[in-house]
Specification:
alpha/beta; 5-stranded antiparallel beta sheet; 23 helices; 21 strands; elongated
């Protein structure tokens, strides 16, 4: 039999000894398995030394009175001999010696005559793998900098806390900017240390991210605001490190946990309460209350979410048909923007459109609406006729952009849509603003073939001089007039429109009686829930068939 030195090349032996895995090479002799080589790690794990080279399992383990271990290993290696291929053995089996086995792969080595002469076994130490797993599990649930528990732990293991106290450092940026990021990190570590030292096992201390921390209370408290004040007072005490004293302020948001909410909602409420506390003045605390309207928080969150709504494809257009009684068919559809935040929650346009206008996000969002409407136009016309138009609402912010006309023309050119099929709707309040540039833009758009309509007409108290001055084709009577159904007022509106050669659309038709009365007064185009609710493109109804069954004899 070859000795270990003659069997293993010196460089290969150095490589094996450098490995953290256990390496055993066994010679096959008369269906027994004889030790030829063990690397350094295997020697430490099994206690096998060079004096044991040349012994088989039974010879070695009989000396140790471990006959079961010898039989276990013999059976394990015999399986490879029978199958004549590599066999993987899972980790974690209890060995006869009382220790746990590691994950092993035993592979046969064949001679030129395809006879198995040796077996090589590579084993990953279970103990080291176990230690590695424990280490990885620790880092999975702990913050690397502060060693506090982290957000993942909060979501996976905190199920029914009583209260969440979320706080952040009001002036951490000042510390980072003046003393450096290292000082900022040192401060965060000190904050974590105070949490560990001052709160018992009834509380769980967590670092969420950056300078945000959460103290989780597992017991009900009659006055949670007192605990928030304790946190503020504790963090207001000066911190000393690097021979310097630093004083910080913190704001605290409190959320009460109940059975009908999950940890995500509780965390969200704590975040809203924290934001409310910060906007009310630094070094404050606030308890989330479902009855409180957190308008500034909601608007801020909408602003953040709207920044990515296009990228996340959260916007969609619904279409509401406008029915022309003279034509007995749909003459146009109005494109109505909807936002399904996170693809889950439908946000009212009344809530997010003002935010989009104030932040300027209405510019890219508005361009998306124009492009999507142009893209959908052929499907609309295939359903209702080639002369059907799409009405698109235009914000004053868009209209005041110097290159708005160039942008909309470029979109229509790319989508191969003629401007004559696009009806641009502006609100009456926008129409009343007497700016030369906006009036000039409307005139230019109208000259290029676009239809210009005033939406919600009657709510802004437009004067006759305003209507005569603006380049407008249509007015859409506001739904409030339709709901009140005051015939003299409606008749006067229709007469004024006729005198100014303006086309009229009645909005908000919700009942057949409203439709019939407006027909009697001389109105012919209608839009509202009685005609059709706003619908996705694929669900638009066949309205001519629906209305053909309703008598129009008045």
């Amino acid at each position: 039999m070859n000795s270990e030195d003659s069997l293993i090349h010196p460089l290969l032996k150095l490589a094996f000894d450098a490995m953290e895995d256990l390496v055993y090479i066994m010679a096959v002799q008369n269906r027994q398995f004889v030790y030829c080589y063990v690397n350094r790690k295997a020697e430490l794990f099994s206690g096998i030394s060079k004096k044991d080279i040349g012994k088989n399992f039974f010879e070695l383990y009989s000396e140790r009175n471990q006959y079961e271990m010898a039989q276990y290993l013999h059976n394990k290696y015999s399986k490879v001999l029978v199958q004549a291929q590599s066999v993987r053995f899972d980790e974690g089996h209890l060995l006869p010696t009382g220790t746990l086995s590691g994950e092993s792969i035993i592979s046969p080595i064949f001679s030129e005559n395809q006879i198995i002469t040796h077996l090589v076994c590579i084993t990953r130490s279970y103990e080291e793998r176990h230690q590695y797993k424990e280490k990885m599990q620790y880092y999975a649930y702990h913050d690397e900098l502060t060693q506090l528990l982290n957000r993942r732990f909060l979501y996976e293991f905190v199920t029914h806390p009583a209260y969440l106290f979320m706080f952040d450092i009001d002036n951490l940026k000042y510390v980072n900017d003046t003393l450096g990021m290292e000082s900022g990190d040192a401060l965060l570590i000190e904050v974590a240390g105070r949490l560990k030292r001052n709160f018992s096992s009834e509380y769980i201390s967590i670092r969420l991210s950056g300078d945000e921390f959460i103290l989780v209370s597992n017991r009900q408290q009659e006055h949670p605001e007192q605990m928030a004040q304790i946190i503020i007072s504790l963090m207001n005490e000066p911190f000393t490190f690097n021979n310097r004293q630093i004083k910080i302020n913190v704001s605290v948001g409190i959320a009460h946990f109940s059975e009908d909410i999950n940890i995500s909602i509780a965390l969200r409420r704590a975040d809203i309460a924290l934001f409310h506390a910060k906007t009310s003045g630094r070094n404050k605390h606030h308890l989330f209350c479902e009855q409180t309207q957190y308008e500034q928080v909601v608007r801020f969150n909408y602003e953040l979410a709207l920044n990515s709504c296009l990228e996340k494809e959260e916007l969609q257009l619904l279409y509401q048909p406008i029915y022309g009684n003279k034509q007995k068919q749909v003459v146009a559809v109005e494109a109505l923007l909807r936002w399904k935040k996170d693809h889950k929650y439908m946000v009212s346009p009344a809530d997010f459109i003002p935010v989009a206008e104030q932040t300027g996000l209405i510019i890219p969002i508005g361009e998306w609406v124009i492009r999507q409407a142009c893209h959908d136009l052929p499907i609309v016309q295939a359903k209702y006729g080639q002369q059907t138009k799409i009405a698109i609402n235009i914000s004053r912010i868009q209209l005041s952009e110097p290159d708005f006309i160039d942008r909309i023309n470029q979109i229509l050119e790319e989508e191969q849509v003629d401007p004559q099929y696009i009806d641009l709707e502006i609100t009456e309040s926008v129409a009343m603003i007497d700016t030369v540039s906006e009036c000039s833009s409307l005139l230019q758009l109208r000259e290029q073939g676009y239809t210009i309509s005033i939406d919600d007409f009657g709510t802004g108290y437009s004067s006759l001089s305003t209507l005569t001055r603006l380049p407008v084709d249509n007015i859409k009577i506001d739904r409030s007039f339709v709901a009140q159904m005051n015939p003299p007022v409606l008749k006067a509106l229709l007469a004024m429109a006729e005198a100014l050669e303006l086309h009229v659309v009645a909005e908000g038709i919700e009942q057949e009686d409203q439709w019939r009365q407006l027909l009697e007064l001389g109105c012919n185009d209608f839009q509202g829930y009685w005609i059709s609710y706003p619908m996705p493109l694929d669900n638009l109804p066949d309205l001519p068939h629906f209305l053909s069954s309703v008598s129009t004899d008045c």
